[in-house]
Each structure stands twice: as C-alpha cells, then as structure tokens.
Amino acid sequence: xFNTLKLSFSVLCVFILTGCxxxxxxxxxxxxxxxxxxIIKGGPFETLHEIDGKPGPNFGGxxxxxxxxxxxxxxxxxELDPGTHVLKLFYLEVxxxxxxxxxxxxxxxxxxxxxxxxxxxxxxSGQRIDLRSRSYTAYDVGEIWTPIVRKIK
Length: 153
Prior knowledge:
The protein is mainly beta. The chain contains one helix and eleven strands, in the order H-E-E-E-E-E-E-E-E-E-E-E. Strands 3, 4, 6, 7, 8 and 10 form a six-stranded mixed β-sheet that branches. A five-stranded mixed β-sheet has the order 1-5-2-9-11, with no helix packed on it.
C-alpha cells in the first residue's frame, strides 16, 4: 500500500513539474479551429518573455522573468488568434561557461494570418567576440542582435 502511494505521488510530481515546463501554449479566444489559428515558433536562443503584454507561464530561472520557452529544450510553439501581436524577446546562448545574452529586451510586432506558421530567428549585424580568449564570461549582444520573423507556411 505504501509503495503504491509513493509511486502515485512520484508520478504526480513528475506530471506537475514537466507539464508546467512545456514550450507549447494555446492562446486562442473562442472555439479552436486549427485552420484558423496562427503559430509562432522559436528558440532555443530566442527567448520569448511576453506576447501582447502577457508574461509567459514558465519559470525563467533565478532573477529572470517568466518565459514561453520550455525549460528543457528552450523551444516555444505558440498557437494564437491571427492578427497583430507584440513580442518581447531576449537572446540567451550558453556555450560551456560562456554566455551570450541581451540585457535589454527587443520588442517586435508581427502580423499573423490564419493558418500561418512563423519562425523567430536571429540575425547578427556584427562579429560576436570569442569569449574563450577573454577574462570575462558574459557578452551582451544587444547591439548586434536582431530577432527576425520568417513565414514558413
């Protein structure tokens, strides 16, 4: 009896912890029709913190804001109503003990269509510093990083 209770509690904990950390979110008003929604995808380096002023449900780590990215693969997949949406994004890439990041968010507006799938990608307008040869381990790429939106369907 005790082992069954212990196993049930463990399964419940895993379900709660992993269920909250998914990068897939449904933000559709009214009835759900897959041909009438838009999808925004991205990650792992493009970190989506807000959509239309609404913070993401997932924990972003100590001192970090909430995010829509998954905790494990850091990807996101958002299904939402078509129209204009405002996204608040950061960049975060960890290579060993080195971190490339943006200290300030970049806010972009995206116009989505019914059935459209959009991918958030990164574009750099300059050369990133190779942190392996530096005495510091974090580099702000905010001056050279731009999130771009590419329609893939």
